[in-house]
Give the backbone structure.
Amino acid sequence: MLSYDGNVKRFGASIFIGFLFLLPSCLSWFLEKPTFAVQEIAITRISLTDINFLFGIEVQNPNSFNLKLKALEYTVYFNEREVGRGRLEKEVLITKASSTLVQVPLQADFKSLGDPVGLLIAGKELKYKIEGTAILRAILSSATIPFSKSGEIKLKK
């Protein structure tokens, strides 16, 4: 039969192991959600059938610890019309109490854009919306954070 000390040690070990299993899901309890802002939209390539964009998204980390952006899934709308979806699977370090510009690619065909000539007119404001989820990782845990950002911006060539 186990002694009192043996039972206490087993109980303590069980609590510790349980804590280690629960810790990864606890990031959302003390994580201040980062903010996302579209800083620029650039056209990187145009072909006869499609157009490639590069979105510069600023991720602001308000926390007192570093975060790693593990993945970013997103859907992009121009003038309230879905033009494409994408996934960025490049790990990006978002340092504590600062912001980092993340480059996000999107390939869209001209059919989804509607009137592509109108988009390419220099100086024209473009209504956009980008929404999705960011998978963030801190020291021992991770969290999935939804985001949505919309506004108007000028295209850069």
User: Anything to note?
Assistant: Strands lie at 35-46, 50-61, 67-78, 81-88, 92-94, 98-109, 125-137, 142-156. The longest strand covers residues 142-156. The chain is about 20% helix and 55% strand. The two ends are 77 Å apart (CA to CA).
